[in-house]
Each structure stands twice: as structure tokens, then as C-alpha cells.
Amino acid sequence: MKTIQKKICLLGDFSVGKSSLVRQFVEGQFDDSYLSTIGVKISRKPVELSEKEVALNLLIWDLAGGDDYSKVTSGYLAGAAGVVMVCDITRKNTLLMLEVYSKQLTKVLKKEIPIVILANKCDLIENREIDDAQLDKISEKINAPWHFSSAKTGEGVETGFRTLSNLII
User: Fold this and answer.
1) What is the distance between the alpha carbons of residues 88 and 110, in angstroms, rounded to a whole number?
2) What is the mean pLDDT of residues 35-42?
3) How far apart are CA 131 and CA 161, in angstroms?
4) CB burial class (10 A; 0-12, 13-18, 19+) of residue 53?
């Protein structure tokens, strides 16, 4: 099986759960304590795509969100093969920002790359502010499939990263 190394970036507003999603995907763990990412944190995770006879070694760049994002763009995004964009289903404004991130991504990279949207915190469904129709609309607008996820329970995390891995190959 051939092994290929690919860089992917996580984008989304502060406190949407990007770091928690990475930790759940890489280590299978969740921690309730919130520590804002400053700059970037890089993790590594191998993903086997046996149906394509390829193993991906994902270098996952967890980028700072919110106001800090504008400070980290070009250098950190350079060389990215794909992006996971994350919104928090309990905060509608985090969905609206995905279009902004998408435009900035295209501007910096000067090309389109695969994107997957994770609608995170689906374990908090009773506080949901974003409905499926809104997710479908942004998904169509930025040409990115979406999945519900929960960094806390692990639901949809593996699926989201595997979807992106398949789009990259």
C-alpha cells in the first residue's frame, strides 16, 4: 500500500470545537476544559483508504479561529491539500463565517481544494440554532459536503475526516 503525506487545516470560529475534534480523531479522547488555540497546533494521524489502496499520513493543522484567523492565513494555509471547516450548531453566527473562511482560503491558495464541513456539538441538539436547510445552503455555496459531529461523543468525527481524505485522493 502506498503512503502519501497530506496537510489539512481546520478552520472555524473560536470555541466551535476544532481542537477537540482533532483530539478525538487523533487520540480518541475528549476534554471539557477550553484552551483557545494560539497560532497553530499540528497533529499527525494515519488514515488507510484500502478501497483506493492508499494510506494517508495526515498532518492536521489546527488554526486559531475568530479574530486571530486573519493573522495566520497565508503561511499556515500554504500547501494544504484539504480543509475541515467547523461550525457550532448552537451558534448560528459560526455557520455564517464559513463562507468568509472559504473566500479567504481561495484568495490565499489561488485555487480550490477539497472542503468538508463539520456541524459540531450535535450532542447539544436541544440548543440547536442551525437547521439542515441552512447547512445544505452553505454546503452548496462553498461546494463542501457536511456531517454532524460531536467531539465529546465522537459521533461523525471519523466520518468527516475520512470524507475529506477520500476527496483529497
Assistant:
1) 27
2) 68
3) 22
4) exposed
Instruction: Report the pLDDT averaged over residues 97-123.
Output: 94
CA 39 to each of CA 55, 56, 67, 70, 155: distance values in angstroms, whole numbers, following the listed order: 28, 25, 11, 11, 27
Q: How confident is the model at residue 23 (pLDDT cuts 50, 70, 90)?
A: very high
- C-alpha distances out from residue 43 to 61, 101, 134, 163, Å: 7, 21, 31, 18
Hey, where are the domains in the chain? 2-168
Q: How far is 25 from 45, CA to CA, in rounded Å?
A: 8
Look at 149 and 71; give whichever has higher pLDDT: 149
- Report the DSSP pairing between strands 115-120 and 146-148: parallel
The pTM assigned to this predicted structure is 0.91
2-168 domain in CATH 3.40.50.300?
Answer: yes
Mean of per-residue pLDDT scores for the chain: 90
Query: 82 pairs with which residues across the strands?
Result: 8
As beta bridge partners, residue 87 has 119
Report how far residue 129's alpha carbon sits from residue 150's, in angstroms, rounded to the nearest whole number. Answer: 15
Secondary structure (3-state) at 45:
strand
